[in-house]
Protein: Helix-turn-helix transcriptional regulator
Organism: Microbacterium schleiferi
Amino acid sequence: MTIVLSLDRGAKVPPSTLQNRLRIAREWRGLEQADLSRELGVGRSTVSNYERGVTIPGKLVINAWAVACDVDVEWLRTGQTEDPRPGPGEGLSAGSKSPAGETSLYHP
C-alpha cells in the first residue's frame, strides 16, 4: 500500500524512500558524499550508489550512517520513529547548543 500525503496547495508528497532518507540525513548533517564516505570507510561512489538506490545498504551501514549523521536509526531505516527528538529539519538547527552545552543537531 502506498500512502500519499496531500498538502494545502493540492500538491502530493510521495512516500519517503530509504535512498531519499540517506541523502536527507547526510545533507542535514552538512556532509558531502566524500566526507561521509571517509566516516563510513567506503568509497564516495558507494555512498552515491546507496543514495541513488543502485545498491541497498545493509544493517551495519545504515546504523553507521545514522551515527555519522546524528539521526535516529529507526527513522533512517523505515521513515518512522518513536524517538521524541525532532527529525532532520524540525526543532533545533544544526550546531545549536543543548542545555548541557553540547553542540548537537537536536537534543531530547
User: Anything to note?
Assistant: The longest strand covers residues 5-6. The domain at 15-80+93-104 is CATH 1.10.260.40 (434 Repressor (Amino-terminal Domain)). Confidence is low (pLDDT under 50) at residues 1-7, 91-108. The beta strands are 5-6, 12-13, 96-97, 103-104.
